[in-house]
Amino acid sequence: MIDLHLHTTASDGCLTPADLVATASAAGLTVLSVTDHDTVAGLGEARRAATRAGLEFVDGIEITAVDDGNDVHVLGYFVRPPDHRLAAFLSEQRAARVARMRHMGERLARLGVTVDVEALIAGAAEMPGASVGRPLLARALVRAGRAVSVDEAFRRYLGTGKPGFVPRSGPSPAEVVQVIHAAGGLASMAHPGITRRPQVLGALVAAGLDAIEVYHSDHPEDVRLALLDYATRHRLLTTGGSDFHGDGGARTIGQATLPLEEFDRLRAAAFGPEARA
Ligand code: AMP
Ligand code: ZN
Ligand code: FE
Ligand code: FE
Fold first, then answer.
1. Residues near ion ligand 2 (Cβ under 5 Å)
2. Cα dist. 165→49, 90, 91, 171, 252 in Å?
3. Model's pTM, two decimal places?
4. Using CA atoms, how far apart are residues 123 and 89, in angstroms rounded to an integer?
5. Which of 62, 136, 154, 176 to mutate to test the pocket of ligand 1 (most atoms within 8 A of CB)?
6. Residues 51-100: tens digit of each pLDDT
7. How many CB atoms lie within 10 A of CB 277?
8. What residues have CB less than 8 Å from 162, skipping those under 6 apart?
9. Counting Cβ atoms within 10 Å, is residue 223 exposed (0-12), middle (13-18) or buried (19+)?
């Protein structure tokens, strides 16, 4: 089983990279990728744990781009983590996340909802290079009794347009494809079935997108088939994974998996001569 979309404590997941790999191994995965938001901080620990467990590991990342005020997630695979341009780009992304988190904390405070945002930021800083995101805030709201679940915290406070929400600005999807390519990676649009912006997919393809995430926990069968058809027509590679966050939410490891032949094509594109052209 191949799951190329997993989160750890390096961003908004609840399992450390080593614990995630142990859980993945127990769940029967043979190939996995860790794709934390705007950071590669978990990759070293995850790769070491995967090697010890006899699993194939793919360096991954999920980068947030912004199109017309909407978040667009772009996955990068087979990136070479020491790339300096990528590192500088990611550290800007993370700084913007910290600033946004503080801003969301202020908005919540104005509603009379107090969350110790600095403690969340400091907690993330314990892992060098880790990123913060709304799920950390959502879990804090649940702990404070302000919401019964992370889902409800998003519905009431943190989702797009809700009173604690702060719109973000950031790089365009096309810029993110360039950054991933410059780092030697392949770019895949994450969960197009959630983002549901066909014009963004078109712009990404024009920018040299390599793949689309066909298989995802939140893609029903008809969406998956439509995306597979899109990939064939546009000669795109395919990726897939559960988007497991280890937070007790609905998604489980291996809930969405990439077929072996499709993974073989992805890996060949990353390591074959044409990938270096
Ligand atoms: P951020 O990186 O701060 O924009 O937070 C985005 C992350 O929050 C996503 O990657 C999901 O893990 C999570 N998320 C977004 N919307 C929801 C929602 N409605 N319910 C639960 N989690 C969500
Ligand atoms: Zn997430
Ligand atoms: Fe995502
Ligand atoms: Fe994700």
1. 12
2. 37, 22, 22, 19, 27
3. 0.96
4. 22
5. 154
6. 999 999 999 999 999 999 999 999 999 997 678 999 999 999 999 999 99
7. 5
8. 154, 155, 156
9. middle
Output the CA–CA distances (angstroms, integers) from residue 231 to 17, 205, 206, 251, 259, in the order listed: 31, 10, 14, 24, 14
Residue 37 Cβ < 6 Å to ligand 1: yes
- Residue 109, both tokens: 């405070």
**Encoded tokens for 198:** 């066909």
Q: What is the DSSP string of 201-212?
A: HHHHHHTT--EE
Hunting for tokens 């550290």 — which residue is that?
91
Size of the chain, expressed as the number of residues it contains: 277
The amino acid occupying position 78 is F
* Substitution candidate for ligand 1 out of 120, 134, 242, 251 with most atoms within 8 A of CB: 134
Does 192 sit in the ligand 1 pocket, CB within 6 Å?
no
